[in-house]
Design brief:
Blueprint: H1 2-33, H2 39-71, H3 79-85, H4 90-134, E1 137-140, E2 146-149
Antiparallel strand pairs: 1-2
Length: about 160
């Protein structure tokens, strides 16, 4: 039965999404701690999980279309549509999958944004440190492009 095959694929997708959450949290811990030695490796692992999710998604879409045909639905149905048309216990199981996917998607989006923010902050800190070390300052010119300028002379009060 196509519903059993679809359910198996949905379980596999949930496992992959949970693995993605784990890999994003690993990446976040590295970023937050400032230890970037293994960051490239962690990023490759995230990309590998995303590739597995893409491949599983193709299989899920094909299986969902097969289930839709069995249930008399149009192709490319949503999980909510499938759950509404499926008999029990499949309807409950499909609703559970849908809720889990919504929760995982929210968690993944939050983690990805936090990691992006940490990467941006780290890149900014490195850039500012390099500018301090070289004595160059980046500003914006009249055209809006960034440009490096030499530092201006500074007065230093040695009485402090």
């Amino acid at each position: 039965m196509a519903l059993a095959d679809l359910s198996s694929l949905l379980w596999r997708q949930r496992e992959l999404l949970e693995l993605l959450v784990f890999k994003l949290e690993e990446e976040q811990m590295m970023l937050a701690s400032g230890r970037s030695k293994w960051l490239a490796h962690a990023t490759r692992e995230v990309e590998a999980v995303l590739d597995q999710i893409r491949r599983t998604e193709v299989l899920r879409a094909a299986e969902a279309d097969a289930v839709a045909r069995e249930l008399g639905l149009a192709p490319n149905p949503s999980l909510a549509d499938l759950a509404a048309a499926a008999p029990e216990p499949w309807a409950s199981l499909l609703r559970d999958h849908r809720q889990a996917f919504l929760a995982l998607t929210t968690e993944i989006t939050t983690l990805a944004q936090a990691n992006k923010d940490l990467l941006t902050a780290g890149q900014r800190a490195v850039r500012e440190s390099l500018m301090l070390a070289t004595g160059a300052v980046e500003t914006y010119g009249p055209t809006g492009a960034s440009r490096a300028t030499a530092p201006a002379p500074r007065l230093l009060d040695e009485a402090i």
